[in-house]
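Q: Sequence in, structure out?
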Amino acid sequence: NYKIELNERQACDVELLTVGGFTPLDGFMNEDAYESVVDKMRLPNGLLFGIPVVMDTANDAIKPGSKILMTYKGKDIAVMDVESRWQPDKVKETSNCYGSTSLEHPAVQMVAWERGPLYLGGKIQGLNLPERVFPCATPEEVRAGLPEKADVVAFQCRNPIHRAHYELFIRSLDAPNVSDDGVVLVHPTCGPTQNDDIPGIVRYHTYEVLQKEVDNPRVRWAYLPYSMHMAGPREAIQHMLIRKNYGCTHFIIGRDMAGCKSSLTGEDFYGAYDAQNLAMEHAPELGMQTVPSLNVVFTEEKGYITADIAEKEGLSVKKLSGTKFRKMLRAGEEIPEWFAFKSVVQVLREHQQKS
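A: Exactly. Output:
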């Protein structure tokens, strides 16, 4: 009955629904599931789910019983059978899911300004996957490429990977709860994130060159068509659930994972370990194990080691802030190799020159 051209966020949700990334969901949440997840972080059947997955619209002619042809960049993507329509309480949704109703939070802005006033629920039938510059392997494809019966540690990121990140996820393989034949799945989100993040296509190019540079058989790579909410603790649950669907057994929980700052004051919306604590609490129920992210630092004497050892031994720690790094990048200054991979820096410079 209706045809809707999806925006990038909606296209990510539809893709994950059709390929099984949001299992057990097989469509956009109906009102009862939406209310249950908002209130209790659980589906009506009791299963954990971090953040509601909803279709929004401003078209009040669409009603239960309608069919919607969904397109993305002019290509038919899916058909939705509308089962429910309602006007959500967005204040309650943002308060419960993001811990804030402030427009200083990027996801509150998204819900308030980008989403339409009505939500639609119903099953999705996939027709074609969205065409993207970065290829997003399905859960089935990713699982087929992973070693059988080995532990798979998921590393979630939304920015270019620098030396400290690499050290962090490589060292996760030495965690006591990871098998000797375990591998890391580097699984960056390439959908929309925060407005000031590096564009997805640029991030994709940095990952591609880094994959070739490190050439490590214990590191596997795939891309996730996921739209970040910057929801801190609840998003950690969402990421774990998704990565389990992609074949992962373990998940690295970083400090202030999926956190964000006020656009006015710069203050953090979540505590440094809020996401880590919630993830650890619920990991057994999800059938996942957590691997806390180590605080690694670079020292002149011993290279990368954990911060506690550096402090204990009185070693000289070298630091370079993200702000300083970006300033050096813009000025064409030499970036120290202890901080960033040469191949990644080259890609960032090339894209900077083009823009």
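The first strand starts at residue 2 and ends at 5.
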